[in-house]
Amino acid sequence: MARNLDIPPPIKEENKAEYMLESAKLRDAEAWVAKHSEIDESDSATKRYIIIKEPKTKNKSPVPIIFTLGFMIPCLIWMSLYANLGEPCSVFCSGKEHWNFYEAFIANLYACGAILFLALIDAIGNKKFRCIIFFIGFASGSFIGTMLGELFV
């Protein structure tokens, strides 16, 4: 029975950079293991155990920031529309009004629908619900923004 040995090709100038890159990765990995391991002195054969340490600073959850961002964008847009353009033309339009509430509201619903669609695709693909939180903030910001905007008229 013949045995085939898998001997790597000799190091030449053409593949020297690739070999050195792999060698550097191995050295980095060995240094990481040596840095993060503890040596058990009680055993005669020295064993190393890798201890995973928790980071000292824990990042806060981005959920409140995402919700606030989703809430503030439409809320500020609606309030600025009411403040700058005045009373919207909603029922009886004489042609002198600056803007039509229903057109702006339908555009807002289209934006909500597009954000919901993208949020659902992102939630299914990434198994995270950050975009859903943004959608909830956007929808509630639209609702609150239309009510607060009327205070400026």
Features:
2 strands, elongated, single chain, 2 domains, mainly alpha, about 150 residues, two-stranded antiparallel sheet, 4 helices
Order of helices and strands: HEEHHH
SS element count, helices: 4
> For the CA atoms, what is the radius of gyration?
31 Å
Average predicted confidence as pLDDT = 75
Distance between the termini: 94 Å
* Side-by-side strand order of the widest sheet: 1-2
The domain tally reads 2
Global geometry: elongated
How much beta, percentage-wise? 5-15%
Q: Supply the helix-strand structural class.
A: mainly alpha
Oligomer: single chain
Low-confidence stretches: none
Share in helix = 55-70%
Question: What does this molecule look like?
Answer:
The chain is mainly alpha-helical and 153 residues long. It folds into 2 domains: 16-50; 63-152, no CATH class. Helix content is 58%, strand content 5%. It has 4 helices and 2 strands. The protein has a two-stranded antiparallel ribbon. Strand 1 and strand 2 (47-50) form a beta hairpin. The longest helix has 26 residues, at 101-126. The termini are far apart.
Summarize the structure.
The protein has 153 residues and is mainly alpha-helical. The protein has helices at 16-35, 63-85, 101-126, 130-149; strands at residues 37-40, 47-50. The protein folds into 2 domains: 16-50; 63-152, no CATH class.
Walk me through the topology.
Elements: H1 16-35, E1 37-40, E2 47-50, H2 63-85, H3 101-126, H4 130-149
